[in-house]
Write a structure and sequence with these properties.
The protein is of the alpha+beta class. It has helices at 7-11, 69-84, 107-120, 127-142, 152-163, 167-185, 204-207, 215-225, 229-241, 245-249, 281-291, 311-326, 337-348, 353-360, 366-371, 377-395, and strands spanning 2-3, 21-26, 32-37, 42-48, 57-63, 261-263, 276-278. α4 (127-142) packs across α6 (167-185).
């Protein structure tokens, strides 16, 4: 509904309900109106189809108080005239002449601040992935776009394009957009994130893996791993300890005490890990064999000075050798399946689930996670010994 806006009418507009916003449009200039937030902030806006946009979008002209009503109308008319001539007022200096405020920040400016003040400051483990997604997926489309003008339709349109390459990629991009928007919202009284429930492009329940290696597959992988040096040892140790790939890759001799206890380093903002586990002799033998290749501090390393890398190529070599040995490939398995396999073997050995969960270093949910701070060291030691004994039995010839 439109009405002839007056100064008195603008001054009398009441704040929106908490967490909401509303618009009142002018009958004199098409698309021109006032946006009112829940804090009572009022802004002159123009809603129209700007050059390069398929659908109408909203852009802020100025805050009420920074510009009077008649001037804002004139700016809106000027914008509409330029748009009709095929010009985008966003890039011809009109907005740059207005008073500077956070609402005129571009996506590039906001994302750079997000990286510096949040991602790098807090040393997020996912920092490289976040920066990669911003650079590859977001900046090409939104670099010079006013941040607060990016709406739900814009996000959905970008996700549609990315989803062509894969729903997981789209969801990872969505997660980064959501983080940026939430970070910005925590610093702006009026900003409301465009991200809402239902924007995911994949079903996490359907994509959840359930693959474990059976005993025959374990024997074949173990046998071939004996031939693959450092990466082979990495695979064996991962199965024997049930630890995450990153933790195994970062393992140092100095992390293992003389009594065989592995102190697992905790990274900044890490939710949980196994913290301290006693390595059975079987697992220690793998460490000693691999470490003898180079004598450095990093166990699974070509030089001892840096962690192992090139996982994809190493895994491909392992798969090729397993296929040659078996006459057929082991279907649909990834290195992370070793943790699930180890968990399942511990269940076979009657290890209670709450113990095997702590061996894997999972965060314990609910009341138990809040109140139970016993370290379960002895119980984890027993569970790992049972796991190692069972794997030794599985790989023994004639089993």
């Amino acid at each position: 509904m439109r009405e002839t806006l007056t100064v008195k009418r603008v001054d009398g507009l009441k704040p929106a309900p908490t967490g909401q916003r509303y618009d009142v449009f002018d009958s004199l200039v098409p698309g021109f109106g006032i946006r009112v937030t829940s804090t009572g902030k009022k802004s002159y806006v123009l809603v129209t189809r700007f050059p390069g946009r398929k659908n109408p979008t909203r852009r802020t002209i100025a805050s009420v108080g920074a510009m009077d009503l008649s001037k804002a109308r004139d700016v809106a008319r000027d914008w509409l005239s330029k748009i009709q001539a095929g010009q985008d007022p966003k890039t011809d200096g009109i907005e740059s002449s207005l008073p500077l405020s956070p609402t005129f920040e571009t996506f590039a400016q906001v994302s750079n601040n997000f990286i510096e003040r949040h991602v790098r400051k807090n040393k997020l483990r996912s920092s490289q992935e976040i920066e990669r997604i911003i650079e590859r997926e977001l900046l090409p489309s939104w670099r010079n776009t006013k941040f607060v003008s990016i709406g739900r339709r814009d996000v959905a349109g970008l996700l549609d394009k990315i989803e062509v390459r894969g729903s997981v990629s789209a969801d990872r991009t969505l997660a980064v957009i959501s983080k940026i928007c939430n970070w910005y919202a925590a610093r702006d009284d009026d900003y409301v994130s465009p991200i809402v429930k239902g924007m995911r492009r994949s079903n996490p329940t359907e994509s959840r893996r359930s693959r474990i290696l059976d005993d025959d597959e374990i024997r074949d992988v173990w046998s071939v791993s004996n031939e693959l040096g450092i990466y082979g040892g990495f695979i064996q140790f991962s199965l024997l300890t049930a630890q995450r790939k990153a933790k195994v890759a970062q393992l140092k001799i100095s992390d293992i005490k003389s009594d065989g206890i592995w102190i697992i380093q905790t990274e900044n903002r890490e939710k949980a890990n196994a913290k301290k586990i006693k390595l059975p002799d079987f697992a220690l033998n793998v460490v000693q064999r691999i470490q003898s290749y180079h004598g450095g501090d990093f166990v699974f390393s070509e030089t001892g000075e840096a962690p192992i890398n090139g996982f994809s190529k190493c895994k491909s070599r392992l798969d090729a050798r397993v296929t040659e040995k078996r006459g057929s490939p082991i279907p649909d398995w990834v290195a992370h399946d070793l943790r699930r396999t180890a968990k399942s073997i511990m269940a076979r050995c009657k290890v209670p689930p709450h113990i095997s969960e702590r061996v894997l270093g999972h965060a314990i949910a609910g009341v138990e996670g809040v109140y139970d701070h016993y370290d379960y060291f002895n119980e984890k030691t027993d569970a790992l010994q049972k796991l190692n004994d069972e794997i030794s039995r599985i790989i023994t010839p004639g089993h």
